From TrEMBL:
Source organism, top-level taxon: Bacteria
HAMAP family the UniProt entry points to: tRNA_thiouridyl_MnmA (MF_00144)
Span of domain tRNA-specific 2-thiouridylase MnmA-like C-terminal: 281-350
Protein name, as recorded: tRNA-specific 2-thiouridylase MnmA
Species of the source: Microbacterium esteraromaticum
Pfam annotation, one family: tRNA_Me_trans
Region Interaction with tRNA, annotated ranges: 147-149
Amino acid sequence: MRVLAAMSGGVDSAVAAARAVDAGHDVVGVHLALSRAGGTLRTGSRGCCTIEDALDARRTADLLGIPFYVWDFSERFREDVIEDFISEYQAGRTPNPCLRCNEKIKFAALLERAIELGFDTVCTGHYATLIDSGDGLELHRASDSAKDQSYVLGVLNADQIAHTYFPLGETPSKALVRAEAEQRGITVAQKPDSHDICFIPDGDTRGWLAEKVGTATGEVVDRTGSVVGTHEGAHAFTVGQRRGLKLGVPAADGKPRFVLEVRPVSNTVVVGPKEALAIAEISGQRFSWAGPAPKAPEFECEVQIRAHADPVPARAFVSSDGVRVVPETPLDGVAPGQSAVIYVGTRVLGQFTIDTTVSAVPVDA
């Protein structure tokens, strides 16, 4: 099998490529250049896709004895991930850029080019597993629950899953992957995992957004519409946020207040008590299925709204209008723009982008 190994420069993709070679596949390594800033350097665990990462990937490819290339996807990344991130915040939504990168870059643009060049599959270091159900391949959680990355892969469709290879999915722990890398002589065996948003390596999302879209003074109001403070740009806030609120009027009960809603058209931020963050229902129009679609329009499932959140038992309803999910217990601090990934057991059934939420706490409560 001809395998294109996506090599980020980290230990996971390095070991995944090595296992593909061990399995006897015809492997070619590729690193995706996602930034036009060629001198970008990595700082500890912040950032990824830097020039240092490309060099680390090349060293691993040389060790494995496989061809290696760097492909410039910076323009596609800018359009599909960075600009999408900015526009979503401007619309008062909270996007997940890593999930969007998987959808638009690693398993769309990269896979499309791989197939055009005659490769059978793309190999990555993601922690997830694929199971052939007889009706088609299904995407499932990884054996290591602490490293499971099935949430950010929930955007994959059946065709993409059919051309995907996850050699690390059955590995019980990341420690074993690092130990294997050490044994193989891979230099990035102890390289820190990347955190934060890769194109905002200093972690200052608020400052980065202010630089891109500017600032504009607006009002902070409570759930009744009373003005309780001001802000310098609604795009800098997200649902569930507590820090950074400039509130001149304290709550009647003296308790802290949290962001409940962002209204970009009026440049208004709505705040309220922590209890009001409880969400009884979520829904969205943009959805996809990770393999065979559900056979019934209504079914029991579990829903996960963040990469490292616990799944919550729920009931899903599918129609021509989209997907609606009612959890057994309220979800906490859900923001429009987030992705809700639907599971049935360990299987990733699909996902949808959250458009609307229904609070479990009435305004007059």
